[in-house]
Amino acid sequence: MKNKYGLKWIFSKTKGLRPQLALFTFLVLLSSATEISIAYFLKLFMDIATGESELSLLTVGVLSVAVIAVTGIFAMLISVLSKYIYGKTERNLRSELMSVIFSRRMTEIAKQHTGELQTKLTVDAQAVSECFPVIIKNLVGSAASVVIATVGMFILNWKMALIMLVLTPLGNREGYI
User: Fold this and answer.
1) Based on the number of CB atoms within 10 Å of its own CB, is 69 exposed (0-12), middle (13-18) or buried (19 or more)?
2) Domain architecture of the chain: domains with CATH
């Protein structure tokens, strides 16, 4: 029999939470976009200081404060939603494990160490329940940040973006960055 424990198995345990996972992914993407957009507002402040922008300092200040506030709201929503997903998944896993334990004969259960059962009910359930939100936040958030930052670099200054795209891998290869 093939071992079904892995990401596919963990994903199957989030069956009732797919809309929340989709919303969580969407919020992670939006959060990445707002975090990267802060660099654009910093450039606007520099343009105002050098006289290259016709926007007022007040307008850019209000917009940048709004973006920072929205970024904070996204961070709070992501945190609350991830805790909700953790808790619901962990509760489902514990219920499933308890039903398996109660469906066994007492002699089979007595062969297991109490600490091992307790670990399965706590640490293992927590690790599995945190898996998908952590993967989504790290993988999707990082990938979105890279794409959005690259597009943003080209919007701000395409010449510098090309230089950075050429020099960054070379610097990483040589150990300078």
Assistant:
1) exposed
2) 18-143 (1.20.1560.10)
